[in-house]
Amino acid sequence: MKAKAVLSAFLSFLIACSPLLNRGPTAESFILPTDKEIAIGQKVLPEAITQFEGIYPDPEVQEYVRSIGQLVAQHAPRKLPYEFFLVNSSQLNAFALPGGKIIITRGLFLIFDEESELVGVLAHEVGHVSARHHARFLEKTLGLSLLLQIGALIIGGDDLKERVILQLASIGATLLALKFSRDQEREADRIGVELTIKAGYDPRGMIKVFRKLKAHTKGSPPEWLSTHPLPETRIKEVSELIEKLKPPPNLKRNSPRFIWAKKRVESTKPSYDLYEEGKRLYTRGRKDEALAKFEKAIELFPRNQIAMAYAASIYLEKGLVKRALALAEKVIQIDPYLLWGWYIKGIALFKLKRYKESIQALNEAKKRVESYAGIYYYLGRNYEALGDIRKAIEYYRMALKLATGKEPWYEDLRRRLYRLGVLF
Ligand SMILES: [Zn+2]
Fold first, then answer.
1. CA distances for 264 relative to 59, 64, 176, 247, 255, angstroms
2. How far is the CA of 48 from the centre of ligand 1 (A)?
3. How many structural domains comprise the chain?
4. Which of 21-35, 129-143, 192-206 has the lowest mean pLDDT?
5. 256 in a domain, yes or no?
């Protein structure tokens, strides 16, 4: 561990000091080390899962998706600790994070009719990671020395400093909106088709997915197509590739386990539909009607943790703090990644004047999404209440840096900073 830290410090020194090494083919030999790539992906994972509305809360279905992912990943040209997650979002989307974390939405899963379609999509994402597309993107946009520093700090488990937190915020946002080049897509398609065949599945599943997504483009286009355009060209290219590879006959297309898993996910759709309605009402400010939808969604599927998180936040707004706290605890039990359980627990405990416990909960929230402004505001409020003004100011400043200005606490934050003599 120590030797690695010294080495990366040395490398970043070398690169920072030599303008020649920063560009041109020489830089190719200084690539983001795999352990740092994995660390960055791991760090961004809870943020990605939170943005896509939490882990689909059925461990057996998760285990199924994981096992299918592993069938593909074991043949990947690049060996990494690949992991696969099904998330609650109703978008039609799938993506990977650096280091091999692969995420697929409930919405996309529900348009599959055969296991080979799931395999095709997961294999395509493994293809991107295997070809280092994410790593190369990070190297190009952030520069290697910064990446090495961030990676080293994450691996070292150090308390992250302001600059690194701000960088992480931008890395997270960029990775979640990442678009690859046409050539990179072609490469991921090629690796994906090869992996699908090696895993024993019919690679035409991928073409079926393209066709379905294309049919969805009337109306609002599916999200996976916004990062994966040109379905027509790709259907043609992937078909040609499959013909060239001459896959053996009788490749697997479906399985009883897929049919079982899809039925399970389908059975909770009414609960998620209510949740979506609740969300729409919530953003229009119709909180009471929204709450009724969320409560009904939880009744239909008692593990619907994202509906619980919304309901808990409405309880908080209504001053039903203990109810919010109880629900937040449930969210935490169901989903270890989702920010909202820990965040709402932190706010509820603050409101109950249980400041030390609130700080603990908010630090857990911070471990999940380091760059979420509200965490710093409420940490500041706790420290101010405890009389530690120096710490309170430190957190308030960070909250101000990360805030968008639209937060419900934003004006209060500015008032406090004026009062404490930080803003003039
Ligand atoms: Zn792709």
1. 11, 11, 28, 32, 14
2. 17
3. 2
4. 21-35
5. no
